[in-house]
Amino acid sequence: MRKIGSLIVLGVVCFIGAVGIAAFGSGRSGSAAQAPRVTLKPDLVIGAAEGNENYVLGSISRIDLDGAGNIYILDYKDRLIRIFKNDGSFLRNISVPAGQGPKEASSLSGIAVTPKGTLYVNDVRKVIVYGADGNFVRSFLVDFRISSIGCPGAEDLVAIGPHGGKILHVFDESGKLLGSFGEPFAVPAEFEAMKEMPMFSAPLLFDSGKDGRIFVLNPHKYEISVFKDRRLVQTLKGESPLFSPIKRMGRAFLSTAANIVGCDGRVFVALRALDPRQQKKMDVFENGKQVDTLDVKGTPHVADGLGRVYFAEEGDFVKVVRYAVISR
Fold first, then answer.
1. Chain centroid, CA 180 distance in Å
2. 27, 29, 190, 237: which could form a disulfide with 34 (CB 3.0–4.6 Å)?
3. Which has the minimum average pLDDT: 82-86, 110-114, 245-249?
């Protein structure tokens, strides 16, 4: 949340704890008569209602993977990064205390992991760095606001936030800015005065795949810019009743957020709804076109090298569920 004068800027559930998911396909646009192109078969669950405290998750706001398949969970409620091996066995916890110190974070807004296991924690204007052994390495300051981070299959860090006429920025492990790319999205005339502010020319949340792709949702229309090697390579155009362009509600502005996962030749897009009771959907894109919509109960976060997708799920307890994607 950010105040601009007397106005408040909000991303739709962008920094609210993650909604859970158990995904079972319906047809396109929810039609039960049409078989889905894909179904999701669970093959791993991490979490428990009680017992071993390492498995009792408080919340899930981000999931990421390193090159060995280790699973990193940002537990915002308990202020922990929980790390598990790819078979679901517990590896370690990293505690991130609240505060302004080098090892502390005030917002704890995201994590990103490199193939070699370097872990980055985002604190909007500061990034905390941990080694593959889980030990603190350093933190570095950023002189502009970054609302989301990712590691698209490389050791460098990518962050999003309007700065210097670009929206995506690449840092090395020491915090050196290596380059910027991605044009700001065109802002409607009614928001022209706010075009330099986060949310209006770029979304607060973006996603990156382990294959090097970066996915950025246009905050004003259901279009996803796909970048690779710092170049725009594709634009996906979709339709969904869950998407709403930035709009003013009283003294606040609301923007639709999305979780976007590239999985082999498909791209899965889960738009987040304001009403937690509303049926959640995950759109499926193939060959650049929207081809299906699945009914889901939560949020996809990342896909591994075997094409399995990792979801955050809530129900009887908070958990991570890994699903194999089965083609029809």
1. 20
2. 27
3. 245-249
**Strand order across the 62-65 sheet:** 62-65, 71-75, 80-84, 90-95
| Secondary structure (H, E, C), 263-286 | ECCEEEEEECCCCCCCCEEEEEEE
* Ramachandran bin of 310, using left for φ above 0, alpha for ψ from -120 to 50, beta for the remaining angles: beta
Sequence-distant (6+) residues with CB within 8 A of 248 are: 254
Structural domains for the chain: 2-327 (2.120.10.30)
Token pair for 251: 């003294």
160 contacts 148 by C-beta, under 8 angstroms: yes
**3-class DSSP state of 219:** coil
Cβ–Cβ < 8 Å for 279, 319:
no
Q: pLDDT per residue over 43-62, tens digit each?
A: 999 999 999 999 999 999 99
In angstroms, rounded to a whole number, what is the distance separating the alpha carbons of residues 315 and 321? 12
Cα distances from 27 to residues 38, 192, 308, in angstroms, run: 10, 39, 21
Average model confidence (pLDDT) across the chain: 88
pTM of this structure: 0.89
What is the residue-wise DSSP string for 131-165? -TTS-EEEEEE-SS---EEE--SSSSEEEEEEETT
pLDDT at residue 219 above 70?
A: yes
- Rg of the chain, C-alpha, whole Å: 19
What is the distance between the alpha carbons of residues 204 and 201, in angstroms, rounded to a whole number? 10
